[in-house]
Amino acid sequence: MIVSWRAVIIGAIIAIVLAIIFGMVSLIYGPMIAVLIAGIVVGYMVDTDIVTGAVHGGIAGLIGGIIALILGLLIGSSFGLAGSIIGAALIIAWIIDIIVGAIGGIIGSAVTGRKM
């Protein structure tokens, strides 16, 4: 399986932009919905099977999650919150982003009618 970096980068950008927008509405569910939408887009863009869509969606969630993690640490530390608490919460959120991105990739690939 060859990774389509174009689709992954587009998905990561979508995840970051939508996470900022949706994060203004809900700090907990907004970024997860953003990663799910990005995963769906990436899964739809990849021209192979459902498993590849899941992998690409997970990679997009991983990259978008890393950038969101760094931004979250910077923003959280500016409010004087303990870095260890913020870091632990953001790492858990990052793992969830990878899983949600993979689920979005599966949905995006399934929408196109591809088989496993």
TrEMBL record:
The keyword Protein biosynthesis does not apply. It comes from the Archaea. Keywords: Membrane, Transmembrane, Transmembrane helix. The chain crosses the membrane at residues 5-22, 28-46, 58-79, 85-111. This is DUF5518 domain-containing protein. It comes from Methanobacterium bryantii.
